[in-house]
Structure prediction request, 431 residues.
Amino acid sequence: MTLSGFRDYLPGEAAVRQEIVRVFRETCELFGFVPLETPAVERWDILAKDRETLDVIIYNVQGSKEEGDGTKKGLRFDLTVPLSRVVAANPNLPRLFKRYQAGPVWRGERPQAGRYREFIQCDADIVGTRSPVADAELVRLMGRVFERLNIREYLVRINNRKILNGLPELAGFAGEHLPEVLRILDKLEKEGLPRITSALEESQFLSAPAAGRILEVLKVASGREQWLSALRDIFAGSGVAQEGIGELAEMGRMLVESGLPAENWTFDISIVRGLAYYTGPVFETTLLKCPEMGSVCSGGRYDSLTGVFGLNKPATGISLGLDRFYAALDRIQALPAAHAGPAAVVIAVDPGSLAVAGNLAADLRENQVRTTLYPESRVRDGLAYAKAAGARWALILGENEMTQGTVQVKDLATGEQKTVPRAQVGSVVGG
RNA sequence: GUGGAUGUAGCUCAGUUGGUUAGAGCACCAGAUUGUGGAUCUGGGGGUCGUGGGUUCAAGUCCCAUCUUCCACCCCA
Prediction:
């Protein structure tokens, strides 16, 4: 029995999860990223550096009696803060640092479907450039991961915090109330424009004209070229917003050139992102067939986070939530196939044949065939194991075969069985 | 963290206003078949009814607590 929000992954599920991570890693390397690994446990002041409110979700780590020091520590709740720490602590890293990392993180929130207390994040980050080209590369990278997993029906929605930062100026409300306003905008997709409209109109922080200006922005909602030009007009007087719009325009051009299909991305003013450290472009990805699972992959630019640790470098990153992604794919029956378990099972008829069977298994493995040597000389059980394990071939040998120098090769998919000379087994099973 | 549902065999579930040794299908195991799985037949094992208390002559059924999973809020992958 596991703790609430913590789970075991039995082989069938674990194999598929690892397959997804494998695709993620390969794609990252194809995009020129290098791996990074950091500890699960971090000093508390590092984790809580950016936001005191995060305290509520950070797991406390008591440490052992033996270690005895009073350092307060906790489990990492994301991979971005540790990355920022590493970057700040290692000034000799390449000026342009592209790293990927897949590993567990912990958050003490109430579990729900696709939402756990321990979950794996697959992160790709680019440190050392302010160019929106980097943000576009991250979106393209994750698009590639989706494509390789045969997921075509997904949508990356992109916004820029700089545009949202122009809202107080545009609508005429105090900047300190922006977080409240953003919380309302964030619910646009979930609750719909009518409810958001009344929420804005009823807000204590907003005058009627202010609410009206915000609604004007909301009506543009999402789009690509038209969206950009509409916002350019609305935010004509705001320098920050214009800067943000310009960055998105460049991102958009790069996405088009990268070959990301137009139906897979859009700009959307209601994408906010809760984490406070975002400063520029932000993105969220949902599976169109499973919108109720929410964002399975998201991220954004955090140009000032490394500064918190003493070395100021711009950075942008994206993160695929493996567990939620898996839960969503499972729900829409789109999980990738995973090859795990033996392709061939070698079965000895009698104890005297086990050694020769072991030798045959070694040969098959030498030929890259995933092979189990059935450890007992019981044909019935060996075949049952082979079937249950999903193996394609059963290779049976006993005294008769040993004297003839042959092996019985049974194709478990068709039930066909034939006598094959020992030397040819590799070509039959391998091909 | 707040509010609300849920929990019976490995899985999906049934179980009548509390009333004898708690059932079904699938799965599993054994035999028919001591060198051949998946079909068929016959037989079989398996549940302290999530856990712990309480009410009652009697609790799967009622009450309380606790845990799990799920839903909403919050937050987010």
Observations:
- The mean pLDDT of chain A is 90.
